[in-house]
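Below is a typical protein record.
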Amino acid sequence: DGDVYQINLSQRFACPFAGSPVDLFAWQNRYNPSPFAAYLDDGRFQIVSASPEMFITLRDGWISTRPIKGTRPRLDETANTRAAALNAAARRSLLASPKEQAELNMIIDLERNDLARICAAGTRQVVEPRTLVAYPTVYHALATVAGRVREGLSFCDVLWAVFPGGSITGAPKIRAMEIIDQTEPTARGVYTGSIGFIGIDDSACLNIAIRTIILRQRTAFVQTGGGIVADSDPQDEWNETLTKARALLAGIRALQG
C-alpha cells in the first residue's frame, strides 16, 4: 500500500576539480561518447553532459520520446579476456529480467498518457517497445513512443505537458516528484532537466540531463539514480548508481589538473 509504483531516486557525488571544463568535455566525447552530449558555460558554472537519453524530438508535427529503463555494466573487451562472456551475460540478464521489463512498461504507459494531452486522437504509438543499446560502460533498455501533435500547439504547450520525463521521476509522476523533493537532501538543479535546441519552426531535440557533470567553484558534482519498485534489491540499486557514475568520475580523475 504505497503512493507510487516506481520512483527514481538519486545520490550526488562531489569531488575537487581544477582541470579544464572544455578538456573534460572532450575527454567524455572521446572515451564515453553519447548521442545527446552537451556543453554549456555561463561563467558561473559549466555543464558537461554525456547523456544517452533523448527526452523529446519534435519534427514535422510529430513528437517522439525515448525513455530508458534498465541498466547493466559493460566491460572493456580489449582489456579483459573474460569481458566478452561477461558482457553477453549482462545483455541476456537485462533482456530476461521481468523487473526491468515491468519498469519500462510503466514508463511507456506514463509517456503515452503524457502524449495524450497534446497528440491527435489515434496517432499515439509505441514505435519500439524495447530495444537494447550499448554505450561504452553500460547497456540500456529503452522504448520509443511517438504521436502527431495537435494543430495550434506551440513548443511551450508541448513542453508544459510532458516535462519532466517519466523515466527520471516515476509513476504516477506528480506524487513521485513530491517524494523525490521530500527525500533527496539537495535540489537536483540541472540534473534530470533537459538540454537541447529549439528551431524557429518549433522543431526541437532535448536530452534528459543524466550522466551530467556540474562544475562550480573548483568542484565537480555528479548525480546518478535508478528506478525503485516494490521488489528492488537495495544493493543492486546502489551498484547501478555507481555503474552510471563510473565513466564520469574516470574523466574527472584523468583531468584533475
Q: What stands out?
A: The mean pLDDT is 95. The chain has one domain: 6-254. The chain has six helices and 13 strands. The longest strand covers residues 6-16.
